Amino acid sequence: MRRTRLSLAAALAFATSAGLVAAPAVADAAPKNAGATDVTVQLLAMNDFHGRISETSGADSQLLTSPGPDGIYGVNPATGVNDDVSTVVGGSAHVATTVESLQKEFTSGSSGPSASFFVGAGDLISASTFESSVYKDEPTIEVFNAMGLDVSAVGNHEFDRGTEELRRISAATDGTYTDDVTACEGVTEGVDGCFGADGHEFEGAEFPYLAANVLDKATGRPMLPPYQIFTTPADQKIALIGVVTETTPTIVSPTGVEDVTFIDEADAVNEWVPKLQAKGVQAIGVLVHEGGVVGNAMPTAYDGCADLTGPIAEINSRISPAVDLIVSGHTHNAYNCTLQDPSGAPRLVTQAGYYGRLVTDIRLSLDRGTGDVNRTATYRATNVAVTRTAPDAEIQSIVDYWNARANVTGNVVVGTVTGDLLRARNGTTVVRNDESVLGTFVANAQLAGAQARDELGDPVVAFMNPGGLRTDITAGEVTYRELFEVQPFSNTVNALTLTGAAIDDVLEQQFRGADPAVDLVLSTSDGFRYEYDRGRAEGDRVFDCSISIGGAPISPTGTYRVTANSFLAVGGDSFTAFTTGTEQVTGPVDVDTAVEYLQGQTLTPPAGDHAIPTSTPSCAP
Hints:
With 621 residues, this protein is of the alpha/beta class. The chain folds into two domains: 7-395, Metallo-dependent phosphatases (Purple Acid Phosphatase, chain A, domain 2, 4-Layer Sandwich); 413-613, Alpha-Beta Complex (5'-nucleotidase,  domain 2), CATH 3.90.780.10. Strand 6, helix 4 (163-169) and strand 7 (209-210) form a beta-alpha-beta unit. The strands form eight sheets. The chain has a seven-stranded mixed β-sheet with strand order 1-19-18-2-5-6-7, with helices on one face. A six-stranded mixed β-sheet has the order 9-10-12-15-17-16, covered by helices on one side. Strands 24-21-28-23-29 form a five-stranded mixed β-sheet. 20% of the residues lie in helices and 23% in strands. The chain is globular and about 80 Å long.
């Protein structure tokens, strides 16, 4: 029987307003036993799950836990040995077991009134594995419903299929704000939505998605609720405000979010804090899909705050001191930090990594008199590894159902590659500021697919963005599932006409600012070549005379038919030069071109060496 939401806090009066335990946590501000009048609250937090409902494998399943006996992370320079310790983690059935175990431990250890909530910080769906993504992530929503997720902020990936699809999957908010789409509205059941049967019928998310900084252009109000208020058994209230990275429009398809505006995260939070206080809510937290980067902590790699950098530090510095904690996401890092809020008081800032490898166990005390979080009492966070001990039977049955459905088509062998197709040109490190072998393979497939369709106008080059490549392909037989998981967004392969000058602009837009680490270098189809000097001024780093197709230099005034996925073609990832194109025609789904390209073939990985760094061009500028 499906688990009832808030099952371990069944005595709670749950209110919505419109609007296994590890060692003591690193992020612990003078912890002590809460006073008898305090109410203890547990928040179990997760972020960036990305539809990993099945057990993960490879590096995704390996969680670095400690530096090993030598006390040094990585290779010891003195011995040449890496004795780091890792453990196998992940899988939604194990997430459920971990959450339930932590809730039971909290409940049994609480001497007074207590409440436990399971919360998310965005990107629960999309960029998912095949068994979820091929069904528009409805399997992941079913899993979180069954686990009793209480609330989540939206992440940028919740917008991958556009705002209408987000409204469709958000059942808990139907009829509120701009959510005017029900779970099976606008789809053909079993074809492009509402895929489940036999007890797995799609009913939408039973938990609300929060979007305080995503404003509907028509009304100026949030498209989805800005916050959620929970009421404890002692009639005290705690509110969570949800926001997503302001950069979302630059990393999703612009046409999918053209009806909304994304405003500054901290500004949105600060707008709603006094409104919550006016409702009598003093205990306030934030779920923000934006984050930071840390180093590995000692003694537990994933449970510290080593040199935190990134947007979350700046956001924390501007969020009202009345906010008692910040649960973050987006950067796929794990940390538990105690940072100063603008008043100088300590404030918890946490993140639980990615793919359901960790759950953050946050413990708070609510003062019975003020209703606020008592930061001098129980106030701590611990990241807990999702180890594979005893999978939750109910969740596992859901996963098994969807895998059985997906295996019918997913396990069909399409073709063979003689070497690995990696998201890196050199070595195995996944980077976005260089071409990749996998990206070149995908560009070649998209070009071939477009050239095979007369209506697309016989394009001569294809461009592929690095963020659209979500996993590698290893040498050997390649299945449909593997090809799909490389490009899980179901973009189309579009053709458009660009001038030679616009192609040059596209290439220049790869190299961004002074820091090469933020570059986004496109992979291109074989036959395309150009040279560049990263040390030159921004906007003039590509040698125009070096850009060639099939060995022939392009002309700035000439016109060229090009191919790009539908995300890039409308200016995604800030490649706005594509929007100057004309005569755009929509083509096949991207994964279909990969299937056609590899079908029955044995292919050798391409070199992926079309972008040539040099300070001296081979042509005369």
